Automatic annotation (TrEMBL):
This is Enoyl reductase (ER) domain-containing protein. InterPro entries: ADH-like_C, ADH-like_N, ER, GroES-like_sf, NAD(P)-bd_dom_sf, Zinc_ADH-like. Residues 11-333 form the Enoyl reductase (ER) domain. The lineage of its organism: Bacteria, Pseudomonadati, Pseudomonadota, Alphaproteobacteria, Sphingomonadales. It comes from Sphingopyxis macrogoltabida (Sphingomonas macrogoltabidus). One of its GO terms (molecular function) is oxidoreductase activity.
Amino acid sequence: MRNFIGLTERPSLDNIAVTQGPVPVPGPGEVLVRVRATSLNYHDYLVVAGFIPQPAGRIPMSDGAGEIAALDPGVKGWRVGDRVMGAFFPDWVDGPPTDANNAAISGETVDGFAADHVVVPAHSLSAMPAGWSFAEAATLPCAGLTAWRALRVEGRLEAGATVLLPGSGGLSVFMLQIAKAIGIRTVMISSSDDKLARLKELGADHGINYRSLPDWAPAVRELTGGRGVDLALDIGGQSTFAHSVAACRMGGHLLVVGSTSNGAPELPLRDVVMRHIRIGGMAVGSVAHLADLVRFVEAHAIRPVIDRDFPLAELGAAFRHQLSGAHMGKITVSL
């Protein structure tokens, strides 16, 4: 038998419960993974809280790490016991995003990793970074990969560039770690002076408390010699979008990598047009991108910052901890 969480017809943080069922059997081209850890992302919260409707029984959670327990005889390149990570987009192996390769989303349109055994396509798997724990590896496929693709694939930033990073959650901390390894200068915004101090300990060059300085874009420009940043990453949506635009340099780049805001932002059209700001959006990345990231974190000895680990039975409590905003880095769940 396997332990797993299946969403109810009306899911909420109050009715998340572990149940039991038969261990699935891998079919052609598939692998059975004994999941050891998952980690929380805001997208996962939207699913488990019912804001992204799913059929009853859907297994949530887009991140997963564990070891291969069984595999279809036709699968090549993997063997029982290999330590692996799943993928947010299990069918996006390489190349640009398409309607076809982005249709399957782990924990949303297909079952995710809130189960101690899952069957996934063999092509969706990546090897864990050498020496990492399962909990550490479970932080990489969504937050870590989003940070990597934003900075290197879409942002194309090199040493000496400047970047604006929002908050102190798992995504922002990964962005900071990757940026510092590349040699990118960072400006972090947060609502907490204590968190800004911790971010500076991790290598942040500058920090701005947006609660004490609500109009923070001029401060960003001042910290960059009046120029503005080369790339601004935005997750606040309505509350931060116009500020992020104003913080960009002439010809700069604003990349939206998610949103924790309920409202749609208003586009400051004149600033965007007259200052030649490029605005784009992106979600996570491909299996090939994740393999590139694994090589990078191994080469630069980067390890994730984990705030707290919960058991699967306390997944609802884990999300409440995430919503409190008290965490720094990633929140993980062990199975």
